[in-house]
Amino acid sequence: MAPKRTQLPLPKNKRAQRLRSNEPETADEFLQAGVELEEAGEKWRAGDAAKSLRFFRKALDKYAAGAKLFPTSLDLAYNNNFAQVCSSLAEAVHDHLGGNKSPDEDPLDLLRNSLSSLEKCFRIQEVQFAQMQQGLEEGHDEEDDIITKDPTSGEVETLEEERWATIVEPTTAGTLLDTSLAQLDVLKLLCNFQSVSSPNDMELIENIYTSVVKDRLDHWSRKVESTREAVLGNIGFLCAFAVARFRLEYTAISSFADEFNSSIAGSETLADLDNDAEALCMIADSQIDFNTSLEDKPLNITSPISNDESELLARIRWKSITAALDRYSTASKIPGVKNLIQIHIARGDCELLRSRLGEEPLNYGVSLKSEPTLLGNALVYYNAARKALSLQVNPGDLSDIAVEIETKIAFVQTVREADSSHLTSLIQKYGISALQALRNMKEERLVGDRKWASTEALTQKVP
Fold first, then answer.
1. Average pLDDT across the chain, whole number
2. Beta carbons within 8 Å of 256's beta carbon, 6+ residues apart
3. Residue 388 CB burial class (10 angstroms; 0-12, 13-18, ≥19)
4. Do 260 and 242 contact (CB within 8 A), yes or no?
5. Which residue ranges are recorded for the region named Disordered (predicted)?
6. Peptide bond between residue 335 and the one before it cis (omega within 30 degrees of 0)
7. Over the stretch 434-459, which tens digit does the pLDDT of each residue have?
8. How far apart are CA 299 and CA 458, in angstroms?
9. What is the pTM of this model?
10. Is 121 in contact with 79 (CB distance < 8 Å)?
11. Percent of the chain beyond pLDDT 90?
12. CA-based radius of gyration for the chain
C-alpha cells in the first residue's frame, strides 16, 4: 500500500502507442493491468470459480512481472493490490477446493505472503510518514516537488500537446491505519481457514495481533481522531478468532459463548450504534458465523453430545440468531440505508435458521412451537426484499438477487402450505438458476435435511 498516485492524461502519441500494444510498458500500466485482472476475478467469484482463479493468478503474475521490471516501484512491490490479490486468490482456492489442500496453491501460504507484503509496506510507509513530518517541521513546501514547469518561463502548453505526470499523494496517518486494518483482515481470513486436520497458526495469529497490529490500530486511529474503523476491525477479528478456537476444540460450548460475547462488547464504545447500519450488519454477520460454528460442532466431535448439551447448544444458537435478527432489523429502519435488499434477505434467512433448530438433531421446543410464525416472518422479510428490488433504477442488473428472492419466497410458501406448485412454477420459470439458488440455500444451512429431501425429489421431477 504505497502512496496513492494520480495519473494525468498521456500525450497523444503515447495514447496511440498504448492502443497498438496489448502489453503494459510502464509501472503504472502493469499496476492497472493487474487491477483489471483482479476485478475480473472478483466478477467471476460467484459464477465460475475456475475462471475466477485463473484471473487472480494472472493478476498475481502481472504484479510480479511488473515488479521485476520496475524493482523501485513500491506500488508493484509492496502494495495493498498485491496483498489483496493474494487474499482473494486464497479465498477463491479455499472456496473452490472446499477447504481441501491443493498441491499447487495453499490458501494459508497465500495469506502468509499477503501478511508479509503488508508488513514490508507498513515499514516503508512509516519511514515515508516520518520523513514527511520532518519536512513539514522544517518548513518544506512539498508542492514544489510536483511542479514540472515554471509558469513564468513563457512556455505555454496547448491542449493538443498534453503533458503527463505522476502525482504522489502524501503518506498520512490514515494511510498507515488502512494498512493496519488490511493486516487485520488477513489475520481474520487466517482464522477462518484454520482446520483440525492440519497444523494451525493460532499462536502465530494471536502473537501478531497482540504484539503488533492491535497497538498500531490504537495508535493510528488516535492520530486520525476516529476509532470507529479500528473498533469494527477488532470486533471482526476477535469474533473470527473465538470461532476458530472453538472449531479447533480449544474451548467448550459455554466458554465459547462467553468468549464470543466479550468480543462484540467493543461495539458498546461506538457512538450512535443504532444509526450505524454497517456496524450493525457486521456484528450481526459475526453472530451468524457463531451460530454456524455451533452447528458444525457436533459433526467434529467423536462422541455424541448429551441431551443437556443439546439443549444448551440450541438455546445459545437461538439467542445468537435472534440477536443478529434484531440488529439487521434495526439497520433496515435507518433512513437511506445502503444494501437494504440484502438486509431484508438476511432477516428472512435468520427466521429460516431459527426454524431449523426445531428439526433433527436438536428438536428445540421453542422453535417447533414457533415454526408457523417464523415462516410467516420470513415471507414478510423476503417480500420486503422483493419490493426494495423493484424500486431500484436498474433492477435488471440484479437478476441473480431477484432469482434468490423468488426462490426463497417459493420455498417458504411450499413449506407453509404443503403445496409444491410454488417451487414447480419457480423452476419452470427460472430453470437452472432456481435450482442453483435452492442448492445455495442448502449450503447456507437454511434448509434442513428433511425439507431438503422433499425439495430435491421435487426438482428431479421437473424437466
1. 82
2. 242, 245, 246, 293, 294
3. buried
4. yes
5. 1-27
6. no
7. 999 999 999 999 998 888 887 877 76
8. 28
9. 0.78
10. yes
11. 43
12. 26
